[in-house]
Amino acid sequence: QVQLVESGGGSVQSGGSLRLSCASSGYTYNLYMAWFRQAPGKEREGVASIDKFGSTTYAGSVKGRFTISQNYAEKTLYLEMNSLKPEDTAMYHCAAAFRAPLFGTTIRPESYNYWGQGTQVTVSS
Predict the structure, then answer these.
(1) Cα 46–chain centre separation
(2) What are phi and psi of 117, to 5 degrees?
């Protein structure tokens, strides 16, 4: 079993920055991990993923602004978010899986089976 706990959300103005953290516990070796977000009334959207080899994938809407990384020793996943926009407002969740996502599905929710409760990010204009 894997437990995931997100933190670091908050309210910022447009153009600001936040760093989200996702602490994992349990059996955490060889995990594939990702960040997702869900705004009210919208479907869950993949933001970024990272595999056990360090390869990353980003949604087009965040590429160049967000950076996913992880610290294996601390068992923590990060999402550095810069140049935030009001449309980035959402509940952000981290997710994990032991099985490698199929090609082209690294930021698809169905590729992950462990989820955190989420941390709210609100960006005002």
Answers:
(1) 8
(2) -80, -25
pLDDT digits (tens, 9 = 90+) for 33-65: 999 999 999 999 999 999 988 999 999 999 999
Number of H-type helices and E-type strands within the chain: 0, 11
Angstrom CA distances, 90 to 30, 98, 110, stand at 28, 26, 19
With vertex at residue 9, the alpha carbon angle to CA 87 and CA 111, rounded to the nearest 5 degrees, is 75
Section 94-107 average pLDDT:
91
Measured distance CA(14)–CA(4) in Å, rounded: 28
Q: SS3 for 94? A: strand
- Pair 69, 20: CB distance under 8 Å: no
- For 48: left if phi > 0, alpha if psi spans -120 to 50, otherwise beta; the answer is beta
Q: Tell me, what amino acid is at 113?
A: N
- Detail the DSSP E strand segments found in 8-103: 10-13, 18-26, 32-38, 45-50, 56-58, 66-71, 76-81, 90-97
